[in-house]
Amino acid sequence: MRSTFAGLNTMVRGIFSNQLSLDTVGHNITNASTDGYSRQSVNLAATKAQSVASLYGDVLVGTGVDSTSIERARNVYADKQYWSETSTQQYYKTTQTNYDKVEAIFDDSDSTGVLNAMEEFYKAWQDLSSNASTASSRVAVIEKGNVFADKLKTVSQQMQDQINAQYDDMRLTVGKVNDATEQIVQLNKSIMSLEATGGSANDLRDQRDLLVDELSKYMNVNVYEDSKGMYSVVSNGITMVGGVNRLTLEMSDAIENPDYGINDYTINIKESGITFIPQNGTLKAQQDTIAEDKAYIDKVADMAGFMLTTFNNMHQQGAGINGTDADIGSYTTKADGTRVKADGTDYTGPAYGMNFYGDDNTVYEWDAGNHCVKTTVFTAGTTKRSIDAVTSASDTPTVNITGTVDTAASASLKGINIIKAMTVNTQISATGGQDLVAARTLSVNQVTSSTGALESTYSVAPNGTKDGTNAVNLAALFNMSGSEAQKYNTAKITVTNAGTTTTVSTSARSTDADSLNAYYNAVMSKLGSDSQSVDNKADAQDDLITQITNWRSSTSGVDWNEELTNMIKFQQGYSACSRCLTTMDEMLDKLVNSTGMVGR
Fold first, then answer.
1. What is the mean pLDDT of the chain?
2. Which of these, 34, 156, 202, 519, could form a disulfide with 514 (CB 3.0-4.6 Å)?
3. What is the reported pLDDT for 293?
4. Burial letters for 280-315: b for 16+ Cβ neighbours within 10 Å, e otherwise?
């Protein structure tokens, strides 16, 4: 038969269960604004019934309620979706930020951008074509040329700074990843210890999931839980966290990159020394944007390469207004800069065959196969310029540049080194050097005898001092495609080295078939298009994350209305159990103290 006090035990269990449920409701309410917190609830179950004899056999009488567990509301599928999409979201956000900075560097909305500097340089040549002998126009060409070169250097320097900043950010991100994995390992240990007796360490699990949320911003992650409740976090096939063990990321030692004038770094796994390559998230975006920024340095280098090769080749075909036109002919530039003829006497004719940009003893050639500028440096004092002989009025004057090659000084320039080489020729930028600017063209003239009669021979001579035809050609290069410009590009440059003579190609262009202006506009159009595309993807990803967050919150979020309803329910249950307990106590008191003594 049942115990005399069985009813009291039933009510006590009810009181304890309702009190535990109320405590859990209070825990939910106080943590409603806690990041990563998951709503908790008490699982209640009826206790084992007691068998009691009856008229027709035993019956099972309930003995009350007890709590089996306190569990958190969590949707594992929503979590996995969130971790996956967060990596993509952070990839787009990091890329978006980089594009914003690059657009600021190439900002052409005011008068300080590359486009404005290029246009001003172009206008200076146009003005020189009409005022070829005016000193102010020549000086303007040199000054605008310096401004254009400086602007390209400034832009490339800012891109270098941006790359270095990205590496600094990457170093900070690696530190955050290591902090997160270390904390996950510690939580794995604590959860395994606390759950060994069968409980569920809900609050610690929330903290661990919040750390995985944070980790998913930096890299792609897959999470697996073992039978002991510990997480294994895998990224790109590498187990970053495995129970109580983890791997540590670190930045490699500096790797000098002379083509871009920076130090590169890789992300390595400290324990094994292998390179870690993230597939998504902030780390992947930082690596990709660094490569993107290098590509923009290459684009600027292409423009500088155009000026060192195609533009210089055209400038070499013109003549300055210095010297005596009648004395034009072959000359060698000595180491001190003076010009002499083959017989050793001073050369008094006008300068021709000179670079506008770069060193005057260097021939610059665009190597399309290796995407670089090949430099052939002549030993100082051996650079010789000559003009091919002509036999008819239809011949085109061609300029030859020869010399003894300084093999040790010759090189292939890439990236930032092309941009650094783009400086106005020191002879042109020197005092009085404006007279060396080759605004005039060379023309073929029939020789006139002393009596004024035309002879059967022809000679090359520069056009009059006011001629600006070559300035017209140079200005046209800014907006002339390769096929259109090729007919003007007739410079013949030969390089002699150890008795072997080779002809330098003047047809290859760093901008391919595009004009300089079209090339820059195409680069900027692509920058704007790519930036807009990333903006759109980032916005779409934000919308997706919002949906997934709402999905998670619908399961694990704390609903105030629901909690207050539960609070009232459990409070009423607590009160009801208490009243019932009081009633049973009164009945037992009556039974014990007021019955059993018949006839008293």
1. 90
2. 519
3. 96
4. bbbbbbbbbbbebbbebbbbbbbbbbbbbbbbbbbb
Place of tokens 């567990």: 69
Angstrom distance (rounded) from CA 114 to CA 299: 12
Q: Considering only CA atoms, which of 190, 163, 185, 164 is closest in space to residue 248?
A: 185
CB atoms under 10 Å from CB of 80, counted, come to 14
> Which residues are within 8 A (CB) of 283 and not within 5 positions of it... i.e. 6 or more apart?
170, 173, 174, 177, 218, 219, 267
Residue given tokens 């207050």 in the structure block: 564
3-state secondary structure 32-79: CCCCCCCCEEEEEEECCCEEEEECCEEEEECCCEEEEEEEECCCHHHH
Report which secondary-structure segment, H or E, holds 3.
none
Only one residue has tokens 């309930």, namely: 62
Could you give the CA distance from residue 139 to residue 132 in angstroms, rounded to a whole number? 11
Q: Are residues 183 and 214 in contact, defined by beta-carbon separation less than 8 angstroms?
A: no
CA distance 23 to 16: 10
Residue 389, classed as helix, strand or coil, is coil
∠508-510-513 over CA atoms, to 5°? 70
Q: Could you give the residue ranges of the DSSP H alpha helices within 423-515?
A: 426-429, 469-477, 482-485
C-alpha span between 264 and 246 (Å, rounded)? 26
3-state secondary structure of 142: helix
Would you state the structure tokens that stand for residue 116, as one six-digit string? 């404005």
Regions in the chain scoring below 50 on pLDDT: 599
Of 46, 50, 49, nearest in space to 67 by CA: 46
Residue 127 near residue 435 (C-beta atoms within 8 A): no
Q: Quick check: 169 and 286 in contact, CB under 8 A?
A: yes
For residue 238, give both structure tokens.
């590498």
What's the CA gap between 442 and 166, in Å, rounded?
Answer: 51
Q: Looking at residue 599, what is its pLDDT?
A: 46
Closest by CA to 174, choosing from 275, 267, 279, is 267
> Residue 448 corresponds to which tokens in the numbers above?
């006139």
Query: Tokens 């052409």 — which residue?
Result: 108
Q: Residue 491: what pLDDT?
A: 59
Q: What is the pLDDT of residue 598?
A: 53
* Type of residue found at 413: L
CA angle 340, 343, 345 (to 5 degrees): 45
- The helix/strand/coil state of 396 is coil
Q: In what order do the strands lie in the sheet with 231-235?
A: 222-225, 231-235, 238-242, 245-246
Contact 463, 443 (CB under 8 A): yes
Q: How far apart are the first and last CA of the chain?
A: 29
Largest CA distance in the chain: 173
Q: Tell me, what DSSP letter sits at residue 488? A: G
Query: Are 351 and 364 in contact, with CB atoms under 8 Å apart?
Result: no
DSSP line for 217-237: HHS--EEEE-TTS-EEEEETT
Contacts with 582 (C-beta within 8 Å, 6 or more apart), sequence order: none
What is the per-residue pLDDT for 197?
A: 85
Which ranges of 106-201 would DSSP assign to H, the alpha helix? 114-130, 135-194
State CA 468 to chain mean position distance: 45
Q: What are phi and psi of 565, to 5 degrees?
A: -65, -45
Q: Alpha-carbon distance 249 to 407, whole Å?
A: 44
Phi, psi of 490 (to 5 degrees): -110, 15
Structure tokens of 114? 């590359």
**C-alpha 595, offset from chain centre:** 91
